What we know:
The strands form three sheets. Strands 1, 9, 12, 13, 14, 15, 16 and 17 form an eight-stranded mixed beta sheet that branches. Strands 2-3-4-5-6-7-8 form a seven-stranded parallel beta sheet. The protein has a two-stranded antiparallel sheet with strand order 10-11. It is of the alpha/beta class. Helix content is 26%, strand content 23%. The structure holds pyridoxal-5'-phosphate. Pyridoxal-5'-phosphate binds at residues 31, 33, 80, 158, 193-194, 209-213.
Amino acid sequence: MMDIEARLTINLAALAANWRQLAEGRRVGAAVKADGYGLGAPPVSRALLAAGCRHFFVAHLAEGVAVRAAIGPGPMIAILNGFPPGHPEAGDLIPVLNGLPDLAAWTTTARQAGRPLPAILHIDTGMARLGLDATELNRLAADHGLLAGLDLRYVMTHLACADAPEHPLNARQATRFAAACARLPPLPRSFANSSGLFLGPDFASDLGRPGCALYGINPTPARPNPMRQVVGLEAPILQIREIPAGTPVGYGASWTAPRPSRTATVAAGYADGYLRALSGRATGILAGRPVPLVGRVSMDLITFDVTDVPLPAPGDRIGLIGPGQTPDDLATAAGTIGYEILTSLGARYRREYTGA
Ligand SMILES: *Cc1c(COP(=O)(O)O)cnc(C)c1O
């Protein structure tokens, strides 16, 4: 029987090597939110744990519960979006406190519990998303009693423009973060995401929080990618067709063969996270050669023009993500970012974890 399942390969050795590279000479954790950027939070977290990672960041409480189940007790797991105190699922997961109301809820609970509660304090230094704003910071700086009962592990902030090193907001955020920390009790600091780790000493802290770079996305978009590729995706050819010039292909007849052509119909589509915006814009790799995607991306199928390569057979695989077509390349073709390519990777792929 022909194997007609698309195969998503996740190289855990490359992931671990990426973490060790970023951890060289400094302490970094790992952002494993959104199911480990779509690659599977449990195997990803276990591989990072084995590589030495002891600090994990997720967005949602349920994600933290899944990571804790995967890695066992001990390492810190912080919930970036926070959660209400006393949540029955919370266990030893640590909330990020993103405003004075969060702070008040947790200090009240700590007082009632009669014991300090661990937390991370988030200061907004220029994103206007989450974190204490300037007014809240002023109130806290004037009254450190607002922290009573909390066992603060870190004070953190998040960079808005770290992937654009020349952006003036970077330096402004570094200055604001240093100034904010100086007005608080002394605490370990957590600052840079992946790109921030490449911005230089002003962005150093006690705990970096890389995410995308671990998964092979280029944290320095203006320069060659210093990270190893982690993801491979290959989908099988279901049919080969010989079509006369003038034959339209796919929905909307958006591509018409300009010459007698050979096409390959492949089992992947936008329902698998192969974004519809890639229609007519992406390239596949067949036996080491690039083949253009033609026509629209359907829900379950895509078509490549294979006229100019040696005749393939049904069951042969076309590489959709690999060394010749990285998540960043696909993202550029789709008008998005590599993060969205990874977190969109579908549930129908057969997932194979290598290098564990
Ligand atoms: C997602 C996230 C990170 C990791 O960012 P990358 O750009 O993927 O390295 C770090 N910190 C916070 C607060 C985040 O939300």
